[in-house]
Every structure is written in C-alpha cells, then in structure tokens.
Structures
1.
Amino acid sequence: MLDVALAEAKLGLSEGGIPIGAALFDRDGMILGRGRNRRVQENDPSIHGETDAFRRAGRQRSYRDKTIVTTLAPCWYCSGLVRQFGIGRVIVGESVNLRGGIDWLRGSGFEVVDLASNECIEMLSSWIRDNPGLWAEDIGEGRE
C-alpha cells in the first residue's frame, strides 16, 4: 500500500510540488482514492496528500473499516480529517520529518502504524533542505 502513496509523492515532486502522497483503501486492500499534496500545483492550501486521496475516494457510508496510507505522518489538519470521519487505520511511511498528530490519534483510540521508511524519510528531508520556506508554509509555520 505504501508503494501507491510513494508513487503519488514522486508524481507530485515531478510536478514541482511537495513530495507527500496518500491513498485510501477499503478493508480488502482495494484502492478507493489516491492523491498527493497539490498545494503548489493548484494554488490551494487545502490540498494535502490525505485530503486529496479522501476527496478522490468519494463518499463512503463508513470509514471505520478503511485504511489511509500516507508517506508522512498526517499534520494536524489531516489528523482532524481522520478523526472527524473515523478512518479506522492510519499507516505512515515516516514521522521523522513531521510527527504531526499521530500521538493524538493513538491517544484517541486510532490504530497508527509507522513504517519508518528510509525512502520516505530521505525523499522529504532532501526536499525540505532545498525548500525550507515552502515547507514552513505547508506545515503552518510560515505565519506572520
């Protein structure tokens, strides 16, 4: 499942965007929606990887039996999406570059699996080194 999110992250990077990808899966492992952070490409601050995948999955009757996979631990915005809709399981590629809300989600009873993927860590940390201002903006630290 992480391969799908990684492919989205790499696509976003090739488009000049932030390399974070995600996908939403049903209980049988079938892809419901996939997406990537497209804040730069679409000039829309709400298009994070998780929200893009969630929107592309379309309306579901329930999310309790769904899994969202993302290359990076979900930020507070995306953690709120997981909690709001009760997505049953969150699989993160890494939480080194951003811890986000995974402790909050775990404390709220959500299953969170951190794969500590070296590929995810390196791809994003390299991008952050080259784009510190855009990264600060993306995670909400670019406030005046």
2.
Amino acid sequence: MSGLLDPGAVDPVLRLTGVSREYGGALPVRAVDDVSLSVASGEIVALVGASGSGKSSLLALMGALDVPDRGQVHIAGLAVSAMGDRLRSAVRARYIGFVFQQFHLLPTLSAVENVGLGLLYSGVEARQRRLRADAALDRVGLATRRRHRPAELSGGEQQRVAVARALVGEPALVLADEPTGALDSEAGATVMHLLREIAQSGTAVVVVTHDREIASSLGRRIHLRDGRLVDDQVRA
C-alpha cells in the first residue's frame, strides 16, 4: 500500500463526479445515472430511496467494490475508478470500513478475533491486531464481551462488534448498509448513536436506510430515484 495518502490530508473524503453504472447485456439497466456528490470528514449522510433505486449499486461504487462505466470516484484524493483490483483492495483496507445489515461475523471466533480480522489483510502483526481490536471493542462498549462468540451475543451486540470491526483500521470513510435493519428499536438507536459519534470524531459516514426517522435525524439526506440523485438536502 505504499504511496497511499494520509486520509486526514484530503477533504472531501469521498467525491463522485458524473458517475454511471450499467448492468446487463442486450437491454442494459442503468443502476446509477450521472451521479455527482461529495462527503466531507466528520459528515454523516443518509442515502435513501425505494427498492431498486440504485442505492446498493451506488454504495458499491463508493466503497471501491465496483467501478463506474463513466465518471470518476475519488476516495481520500485517490482516483479509484482508474485502479486495478489489487490497488482498490488496498484502498478499501486503508480507508474504508463497512457495516452491513447482516453482521457477517465468523461463528467460531470470539468478538475480539472477529474485530482483529479487519486488520489481517493490512499486514498488522498479531499482537497489534489484538491490542487494536481490544481498543475498538472498548470504543463500542463491549470490552467485557471480548471473548464471547457471536451466538453468545445479542443482535445489538453483534452489530456493535461489526461496527468495531469497521473502525479497527481507523478508516476515513464508513459505509453502513441498513445497519439497524435486523435490530429492535433500542439496539438500533445504540448503533446509530455510535455512528454519529464516529462522524463527530472526524470520519465521513454514509448510512443507507429505509427508516424515515433515521434519515430525517441525520445532518444530510441524499435521495436516489431510478439511479439518479433527485435531492440532496442538508438539515438546517
């Protein structure tokens, strides 16, 4: 990962310029259609829209999991849409943390081992992985549950482990895809509080959500329809 930038030196953390993405063969579907937006350090943004509006496709482009057919994606100042798979993987490992609706924890590993897994592909040695994973679990209020396996944790606790795994690499950008979708209201509120705290600490956070209450509570709401950005609203 030599040559990657210090994420604190670049703002906005995420910038999309005229981004489009099509899928299919003879009759392609344009899932993302000429989208331009940016997300700054310390900003928390709701990404909303009906099913099929292009949210998942756009999130994949934001997270360097996919590349656009047209337009540019910059993460921490790096033009990731021009990169090959190996460099994009390095960008994801260095700059991006992911949180999903399903927790994607390995059932045979403890909480601290699951969190430390987020550093495995960054070349961090085992002792440092453990120390940083402990610190990340402490940050999400799970220091006393560090040795518990997923089956021994509640749904809300599992999602907090997943948030800790996203944070352990100290990313510049956190992408959360329906992070409260599998949780009850109390556990969901706890996870959203954590994501707001993460933004307040200087990380850019994008939250995909169908929950209108969550979307209206965040500082900015980006609305997609048929792959196009139809509204980008900042709360007063």
3.
Amino acid sequence: MRSALSRTLETMAKVTSSPIPRLPVVALVGRPNVGKSTLFNRLSGRKQAIVDNLPGVTRDRNYGRAEWYGKRFVLIDTGGFDPEPESDLEKKIQEQSRLALEEADVVLFLFDGKTGLSPVDRDAVELLRGVDKPVFFAVNKIDTKPREDSLYEFYALGLESLYPLSAEHGFGLSELMDSITAAFPAEVEERIEEEASRPLSLAVVGRPNVGKSTLVNRLLGYGRSVVDAGPGTTRDALESPFVFRGQEYVLVDTAGIRRKARIVDRIERYSVIRSLGSVDRGDVVIHLLDGSEGVTDQDAQILAYAAQRGKGLVLAVNKSDLISHDQGDRRSYRERVYEKLAFVDYAPVTFISALTGYGVDSIMQTVARVASAYQCRVQTSRLNQALQEAVQKHTPPLARGRQVKFFYATQTATRPPTFVIFVNFPMAVAAEYRRYLERQLRLNLGLENSPLRLIFRARREQRVKSFRGAAWKRSK
C-alpha cells in the first residue's frame, strides 16, 4: 500500500509542465541524540532541524531535499527510535518513526560511537532485519583514533557492513552516501528536469497550542505532525509538499511563538527563532487565532512581523465551534479582530475548526485568492489610471506650501506587488496619504487581500536639479 508521502509527491509531479517522477526517500532512524539531525543538516545543506545535546529534541518527521553527486533524494529526520515507549507523547513520536520507515526507499540507522552499544540498539537491529528494503548501519561520532577502537563491539551484531562516521565533521560520509545512493530503486530516480516555477510557500503560525499541527494534518490528510494537548509539541519548522485544486504549495508547520519572557526552555527559544524564520520563508501566512480567546498582544506582534515583511496573510479563527454561527455574531467578531489588527485590515478573516474540518476547504479557497493577488502583475496603463483616480479623488496635502505632484507609476516586483511611484517630493508624501493610496490601489486593482509595497521616488531630472541645488549651496 502506497504511503501518504508517495501519493503527495506523485500528485505534485502530475501538475508540473514536465512530469517528474518522485524522488527516492531516505529515512534517518536511531536512538535519541545519536546525531540524526546533525547528519540531516549536513546532507540537506541548511540548518533545518534543531540540534541540541538533549535527547528527544526532534519529535516530528522532518523532510528536506538533498543531493549527492547529482543524485537527488528526500531525507527524513525522525524522533528517537525506542521499541517500547512509555508516555503517550513518546508513543506518538515512535509512530512518526514507523511511518518514516514505511515511506522510505532506503533506511539509515545510526549508532552512537561515543556511548557504545545499548539494548535498544540490539532490539532495533532485530526489528530492522525484517524490513524488506535496503538498510544501512553507521556508527556516528567516530572522530578520533580511540573512538575507532569502539567499533568492535558493534561488529558483534553480525551486520554485513558497518560504516564509521562523524556527521559533525563529515568523516566517512563519502563511502556511506556512495553506498546509499547506489541502492536507490531505479524506478523512482528523478529525471534531470527543473520545475517550471517555485511552489508557493504556505506557513502556518500562531501561539502555542492553537491548533497549527491539527490544521496541517487535516490539510494533508494524514498524521504529518505530532499532535498533543500540551503546548509546544512542535519544535521544528516542518515542510511538506501539498497540492490543492491543481495549485502547488510547500506547507510549513511551525512551533508556537510565545513572549520572550515566557521562554525558559532553550529548545523552545530556538523554535521561536525557527518560527519567525518560517514567516520569512513563507509567501502566504495562515495565522491561527484562538476563537475562545480572541486577539492577544502576542498575535499582534507575530502579525506585525509578517506585515513588515510584506507577507500575504489569512487570519483563521480556529475552534469556531465555540463561536455562534449567527452571521451577525461573526460579523461583530470580525470587526473586533480588525479593531485590534487595523494594520492588516486587508487580510481576510475565516472561521474554521481544524479538529472537525469545518471551514478548512473554505480557508484554502481564501489562500488561493490571496496567493493570486500576491503574485499579480498589473498592466502599467491600468496602474496609472488607478493612481490618477485616487489622486483626483483626494489630493495630497501641500508640502511647505508647494503641491506634491504624482507623475507616473510602474510595477517592479510581485510577492508582494511592488509599485514605484515617481513624484516631485518623495519625502513629502505623508504616512496617512501613503495608507490612503494603498487602500485605493487595492480597491481599484482588485488586490483587496494582498499587501502592497509603495516606493516613492523623484524623477531623474528632479534628482539632478536637487543635486545641483545642493552643490550650489555648498559652493556658497
């Protein structure tokens, strides 16, 4: 039976202009704190997984693309492997590891050469002997001559091949990866073709325990992230390929963001930094609000961070079953949201229940509408007509007794739409008038749900005059 990841990657391949078979999948498994995330970061080329000396830092499956001498593959970092987990959360983490084994084409099991062989390692080896796919065993943290002597106890397991490795320094990596890539099934190797365009990145953010992972799992249709009643379960920013009605996305589930004063665990502090980084990587951000609590100061801070970076925004009120379905009540709730978040009044508000699935299809339609506006390129003639209408409707205030003249505008970028507007006195355009122009341009250009960037510049001849005037004053 095909795994959920296989079905997702195959679906993504169908919507590209040139069909691309799915990539081989390599799963990293082993006891907690053996160095899986360190190896994941080295192979994927970026610090996507959180690395710390504390065991159990990685809780979810973490996906990344990697390449080894022209052979591309998907790498899965998993939580620590334990045949007999005790707590409910540990059991969920182990389930993520087992799902990774099912999804993988090749499995890499890491031992810890520093602490030596453990009973858990022996049990895991026996379990992996029954896996009907290539399995490789490497002893990590072999970075000194004395450590090499510790390899002998691992040979007692009766394994055909054992690879000494230092994931931190890269020692032994070439021989190991040459063997792994040689074991890739031929039928899943990628053809050397690039995707026509980069998929839109969709980041799911919000305060801890607001339902982010539940929403991600609901959208993907399978248990992508560990879900637990305790806040702070998700620590890494997790990326998954995702297709909705023919539109490709990379879905990012992030750790919850709390006030700095409340962050006492250093791992959670790393997660906050990673979450803000996910906002930076995202094109469109779904910000989840708790329907029972409303908008908090922390929500406003997260959204201010996203707005300053020009991200497309969708405000999703989760747990909406706690709010009356009466349209009047929801209209007043939406008005209260905008009262506290006036700086993102262009962001649509939707009501959902990630747990039951209510409104989830609607929120993706809203995301598609925001994404369309976010990537929109406007004809220059239409842009200048909209600008002229806005200026005629409400002329800008005088600047030191002189009229501010708007000459013309041009679009210089998308994601978000960025317009350069040429005026005689750029510095004289007040903040209030800038906001007025943003609202009018959104309305007249059909970009109601998208952020805009307006850049005011002087015309070239105006800049020359200003330069000559300044030079004349200096000569006096």
